[in-house]
Structure formats: C-alpha cells, structure tokens
Amino acid sequence: MTEEEAAELAARIEQDLQAEPGVSVVYPASGAGLLREAAANLLGAGDAGPRVAVRPGDPVRIDVALGLDHARPAGETARAVQRMIRRAAAGPVQIRITVAHLDASPDPTGG
Q: Is 32 helix (H, G, I), strand (E, B) or coil?
C-alpha cells in the first residue's frame, strides 16, 4: 500500500465513520494529530489533516478515536465501526478503536 492509497483509505474511513449511527465525532487518532488540530484552530485554519491513522504493512494498522452518543449502545457502535473498517480495508487489518468521549447524559427519548 502506497502513502497515497493509505491517505485515500483514511479519508474514506473517516467519511464512513461520520455517517455511522452512534458516532458523534471523529477525533485525531494520534497525539500529534491533536497538536496539529489545536495549532490549526489557533491559526484559524480549517484543515488539520487526517483524523484516521492508516499505517501500511502486513497487516495494515488503522487507529481511530471517536466520540459516541446515544444512538445505540457503545459496544454495538464499536463492533459496527470495526466491521465497517474491515470492509473498507479489504485485506488483513489490525484495528485500534479508542473511545475518547462517551456522552453519558440521560437519553432524552427515555431509551
């Protein structure tokens, strides 16, 4: 996998994550990404770079950091995210999902 292919895969996964029920936000997957985002925000720049880390290799390593909401249980959301990433990668993959924020406020629908 080339760097360009890894960047395309990261962008596709990020887009899919943002549409996944239960995922409220996709955070930068690395500490360096968090620093880039903070610097971009301070400078007024909107683009802080990719939020999904894809490291080519055998297997490909993919790291994501997510904020979850009440759309469905956290465990169910994490399993759905894992399945979605496996489909997108279409090959051997090692996935690390970090739940960086879990909305623990009461569900307004009573569910």
A: helix
For residue 62, what are the CA distances in angstroms to 44, 56, 59, 85, 89?
29, 9, 9, 8, 9
At 35, the pLDDT band (50, 70, 90 cuts) reads very low
pLDDT of res. 9: 95
Q: Are 14 and 26 in contact (CB under 8 A)?
A: yes
Q: Where are the alpha helices (DSSP H) in the chain?
A: 3-19, 31-43, 74-89
Is 109 part of a structural domain of the chain?
no
Alpha-carbon distance of 57 to 91, in angstroms, equals 11
pTM of the model: 0.77
Q: Which domain holds residue 89?
A: 3-102
